Predict the structure.
Amino acid sequence: MAYTYYVKTSGDDSKDGLSEANAFRTITKAVSVVSAGDTVYIAPGTYREVVSLLTSGNESNYITFEGDPDCNHFVNEKKGYVRITGCDSNEQPQSAGRIFSFGGKNYNILRNVVVDGTKSETSSALIGVYLYANDICENCIVQGVSYGIYGAGTTRNCVAIAGSRAFAALTLAENCIGIGGIGGFDVCSLVKNCLGIGSGSYGGFSNSTVYNSIGIGYFGFNNCNCYNCISFVSYYGIRSTSDYTLNHHISVYCNYAFYGTDTAKPLNIEGQKYVYCYSVQRGGGYETGTPIECKHIGFVGDAITMIKRIASALKFTMFFEKDWSDDTVDVGLTDILGQVRRLGDGTIDVGAIEYSDKQPEWTTYKQTAPSIRINRKGLETFHITCVENIQKTIEVYVKFDLNGGTNKPQLIASGNYITTKTSEAVGDGTDWERLSVSFTPSKTGLVKIELFSRETTSGSYTIFSDLNVITRS
């Protein structure tokens, strides 16, 4: 008989886990009781634990560990991310191994979670998710140091980020994005419909069979069988020999479109395509055949819209560990991806951008839940459209604990058609305090609203509640 178990951050591992009311507190507890065919639903929240599976399912009865960010299986929980992390409560990475390991067990599924928290070390063991044969990882965002997702399993609809290689040694990777300091995808039996980005010696894709994918990096594709693929803005679009197959390949904006590595096994580039490449091929007998320069491939449309879309896709949740103030440097409020560079108080902050514990707060609020809690220093940013010559007032309530610090929270409004307005708390943070700014734009346009938690002291936090926009004609 298959069972359904429940895990939530307010649960209790001494209970049976068979209902939301009796949910386990940890995923590790659920791991210890599951059998083939069982399902574990994990409620939104942060789970500070390293998980290693103990039980195999079978071909007909997978064991499923499923994050439930939309609370389809929880009535009394609030929607949000399901995060499994090796970071401690101060968001310092602690794990020197695998965050979620399938433990050499077969026929398990991990779905709908965020995985992170490996330490910075020179070690091949620092892995976000470690798969085994016939295991599946789906719809996950995974961060690791040596590898994001590694092992002889299957990944679908995942994003992996790693200091070394994002995806490696997989049986199948499908509809995934891999971003690695060395490589995006390495030694994967089959890759379909993926984007691989790698800064180092493995490039976007290396030593893999790849279909319908885009490679970006030092190598777009290195020693790969490529079918209907694109090398994009890479030093070497294709680096390979006749041991590998190219079929309907295009190199776009590459330093070398095609680069053979062995004159005894020249790379066959007959009929392959390129455009806007600095050098078509290495020459000297390293390639054979004649490639074709294809028609224009480029970009059209509104550049600002494109940048906003990129910024939205790459948005980090962050706080700033420390201030590096240098007012002689002329920079704007934000960089091209919308990350803060000059803060609302005028100081420049280009310190470490780190994963923040910024999150919805459901227990402490003024009138309406949720409020927003920001631990230490960080921003929550909103954009609103304001009409020419129509006054707007923005208000929000704050509570805070500076833990001995002195930098009180602020509400900031800024934009091209208004003078920047700032309201700073004056109380001690014990009681709710109203912050308010008013402005009248000279033209219709966007105004940026920032909820700014300014204190860097460990243990400090700010809670913002009941943000309200008031229009006065």
